[in-house]
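Might you be able to consider the sequence and fold that I enclose below?
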Amino acid sequence: MSPTAFTFRPLDPLTDAELLHSWVTHPKAAFWMMQDAKLEDIERAYMEIAADEHHHALLGLDGDGEPAFLMEYYDPAHRELVGLYEPQPGDIGMHFLTPATDTPVHGFTRAVITAVMARLFEDPAVRRVVVEPDVSNTAVHALNEAVGFMPEREIQKPEKKALLSFCTREQFFVTTGVSA
């Protein structure tokens, strides 16, 4: 699966809430920490993101224009990591979620993270992507490494112990072979 097969659109908190609810409450999305969320909780959470100038949510669409994954990005100087590390100019934080499926496609999640990173680096102001996945989420650590992330250290967030990792523009393009 090619990362270029995906496109992005802004998430609509109301019309997309039902779909997101099915994704984030699935047992395979445990690291998203919304297992017990009600539909209204999802609507509220994504309405807050839509109103936040420092946090954004997009849906990744497959080649047929159907929602295939969720992407969030945020300014770590203002959200998620405030006080937990020293942000640099050009830093951007990122989360992504691929929904559970009964028919997995080999290479899909790697294509998704590659597309997400390429989308972030389309902005010339972005110099480094910051992630903070749960330390026990070994699957995402491997994916992060596959696109150039380097772990720095463990940090304690209010909701989890996280592995703070960074990927520069150069690391991403060299590691993945994606052209700038």
